[in-house]
Amino acid sequence: MTASVTPQDQRATGAPPPVGHAFPGATWKELAHLLANLPATLLGFVYSVLFVSLGVGLAVTVIGLPVLVLGLRGARLVGRAERGRARRLLGVRIEEPSRIPRGAGGGSALGRLWDDVKDPVGWRTALYSVIRLPWGIVTFTVSLVSFFALWPVLGYLVRGMANVDRAMVRGLLSPSTELERRIAELESGRGVVVDTAAADLRRIERDLHDGAQARLVALAMGLGLAKEKVVEDPEAAALMVEEAHGEVKLALQELRDLARGIHPAVLTDRGLDAALSSVAARCTVPVSVKADLHDRPAEAIEGIAYFTVSELLQNVSKHSGARTATVEVWRAGDRLLLQVHDDGHGGASLDGGTGLAGLSDRLGAVDGLFVIDSPPGGPTTITAELPWRERGADRAGRRLAGKPGEGRG
Is-contact 65 42, C-beta < 8 A? Predict the structure, then answer.
């Protein structure tokens, strides 16, 4: 028995609908792509051969290298156009490759040119344009002849040739190396980090303006009035000074809270175990903390772990309806893992408006993972994984001792 494929299955997998006697819209798009192959591949072939020939032929002159670089940059544009054509007509969605990595060739103008010459994306696109010319001729000819003379098998021929096109696009025009994929991910994560840092700076500015700064202004005004009354009305002046003393205490407390929000002193002085215990003590739900850490990770990773747990416990207090919660932190190899569990009503998700999506983005920006297990009715278990990235002093000490670092769970 042949299994049936529903339209929902096709939409979920991104596959085109099956070929029949009445051609669906996807088949017509495939046919348009195959007929456009000849002019597109002809232009790409001429362009690629021209810039490679000029660049190599002029390599003995000063302009040879710049010509080759310009040609490779143009090849990237050709690849972008081909990916767009495949996306619109074949339904092939491929991420755009990363920009050319800088630094390998040095910071000089010649070094940057050399980085461009080694661009794998440009060279793969040029290869794609060259080997596609005979294929473009074949697909154009077969599609045109089949359209007028072989109508019963047109759909099957079109589907088969379109699938070959899909394989070529995925093989030569996608970010094929792990390095390229990681660069693209890091570029995306860098935007998240920049946005997060900007939001944090705005929050700090707002807190300073609305909190401690306003209190200090009121304090200055009060002390000024007390100074004027100190001779003619000492009792009133003393009362004003007492009020000013209370304002100073409140301002200091607000500054301490603000400093704790930037980077808590207990985290710097005593490490993640003590810092998380401090956070747990401020939670409105009873929280038990278990930390199995024999070493300390990098300071930045400690900070991210601290603020992740802090925000998760705030969610437990505000949204979970839980009676108890637990926090566990441990090391597994070169990764730092933390888990927050509560016995609340569950239903937590990245689109629930509780800031979990922001936490996931922040962890992803540093090559971390964020997993939510929160069925309706509870309980909720959220696991975060971060790179350990041990402290520089510890790493240097191991190098001097000639011993590799060993992770302990």
Answer: no
By C-alpha distance, which of 300, 254, 292 is closest to 273?
A: 292
pLDDT at 51: 86
Cα 10 from Cα 19, distance rounded (Å):
13
CB 267 within 8 A of CB 279: no
* Nearest partner of 85 among 129, 144, 23, 117, judged by Cα: 129
Sign of CA dihedral 7, 13, 15, 18: negative
Residue carrying structure tokens 């983005």: 361
Residue 373 CA to residue 383 CA, distance in Å, equals 8
User: With 0-12 CB in 10 A as exposed, 13-18 as middle and 19+ as buried, what is 74?
Assistant: middle
Instruction: List beta partners, residue 339.
Output: 328, 383
Check: CB of residue 225 under 8 Å from CB of residue 240: yes
CA 247 to chain centre: 43
- Residues 30-39 have pLDDT tens digits of 999 999 999 9
Q: Calculate what percentage of the chain has a pLDDT beyond 70.
A: 74
Helix (H) or strand (E) holding 380: strand 380-387
Long-range contacts of 369-375 (CB under 8 A, 24+ apart): 372/348, 374/346, 374/347, 374/348, 374/349, 375/346, 375/347
CA dist., res. 308 & res. 371, Å (int): 13
Amino acid 237: pLDDT: 78
Task: State the pLDDT confidence band at 139, using cuts at 50, 70 and 90.
Answer: very high
- If you search the block for the tokens 């980090």, which residue do you land on? 193
Helix axes 109-117, 64-89, angle to 10 degrees: 40
Peptide bond into 379 cis (omega under 30): yes
Range 202-206 contact pairs with CB under 8 angstroms and sequence separation of 24 or more: 203/261, 204/258, 204/261, 204/262
| pLDDT tens per residue, range 302-317 | 888 888 888 888 888 8
Ordered DSSP codes for 253-301: HHHHHHHHHH--HHHHHH-HHHHHHHHHHHSSS-EEEEEE-SS---HHH
pLDDT higher than 90, residue 135? yes
Closest Cα partner for 382 from 342, 334, 351?
Answer: 342
Q: How far apart are CA 395 and CA 388, in angstroms?
A: 12
pLDDT tens digits, residue range 91-120?
888 878 777 665 544 456 777 777 778 788
